[in-house]
Amino acid sequence: MTATTTKVVCAVFLAALMGGCSDPEGVFTPDSAAVRAFRTRLNSQPSATAALQARCSTTIRVVRLSVDRPVTEDILTLLQVREAHQVTTRHVRLLCGETVLSDAWNWYVPERLSPAMNTLLEQTDTPFGRAVQQTAFRRQRLETRFPGRASGIVLENRALLRRGVDDAPISLVVEDYLPAAIRP
Question: Which of 11, 14, 17, 116 stands 20 to 30 A from 101 (CA)?
Answer without folding.
Answer: 116
